[in-house]
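pipeline: protein-struct stage 2 | run 1193 | Peptide chain release factor subunit 1
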Amino acid sequence: MLLLKSDTGLVAFRQVERVLAIVPPFPLTEQAASEGWNAGPLLDMLTTDYTVGVVLLRLGRYLVAVFRGTEPVVTKTDTRYVKGKHHAGGTSQLRFKRIREGQMRKLFDEACGVVGSRFEPHDREMDYILLGGEKLTLSGFMKVCPYLQRRQKLILDRRLNIRDPKHDTLETVAGMLRQSRVWAVGQ
């Protein structure tokens, strides 16, 4: 069996021959982990209204939001054109690559500026930051966004699975904030 790696912890409940394993959406405190077979801390964590910053990014579109509980406090969505992939070879391919990288950098810079302007008023109350989007795109974005680099400790490992970051997806994002992964093992 694969051992789970999670920065939010793992909760297991056992009843005779059945085990329920839960990876909570937010980190469990050490106190909660030491309380043994008590579901109270997990339930408290699932009902707490955390302040969560959300950054959803894909090439050509981004969504930045701050949620208090499941209610959006601040949101901003925008688009910026980024060329698709190019399959021809030669010098035109290199020129295309340079243009595309420049467009990506402009998108990253714009999105990072929005993240800073929307998150900064909530810095003191921000509990966590969640990211969503394609892994390589987010990796490139993190390298050029000093605001998020300074708040690395708040960024959780789990990624929100949203294909199209736009204003219409805010309700979906709000529902995903408290999602846990659950596995039932046994009869």
